[in-house]
Amino acid sequence: MFYGETVDVSVGGACFLMDQNLNGGTVVQLFLQLPQRRQGHEAPVVSTRAKVLYTAFSADHDRWRLGVQFVDINGQERAKLEKELSQQG
Q: Strands, DSSP E only, in the chain?
């Protein structure tokens, strides 16, 4: 299991900073914790598979920057993500 910090996220994919590098083309199971909107409620988590499209070492952050594309994201998970993105306004 690997952990990362989200840099950017869209309905189609995301970019993360991670201590580990993954090879381009690798498919991973991704659990993306969304921000907690209401105190006392758990932050929603989007679960989907994702394919690593690119990796590059970020000297500014001393970590790996990985870009992934979501694959096979189901309707319920996509709806959670779309709701969160629309509230970021």
A: 4-9, 13-18, 27-33, 45-58, 63-71
Judge whether 85 lies within some domain: no
- Beta-carbon contacts of 73 under 8 Å, excluding residues fewer than 6 positions away, are 46, 48, 49, 81
State the total domains in the chain: 1
Q: Domain containing 16: what range?
A: 4-35+42-72
* pLDDT tens for each residue of the chain, 89 residues long: 888 999 999 999 999 999 999 999 999 999 998 876 667 778 789 999 999 999 999 999 999 999 999 998 999 999 999 988 888 75
pTM of the model: 0.85
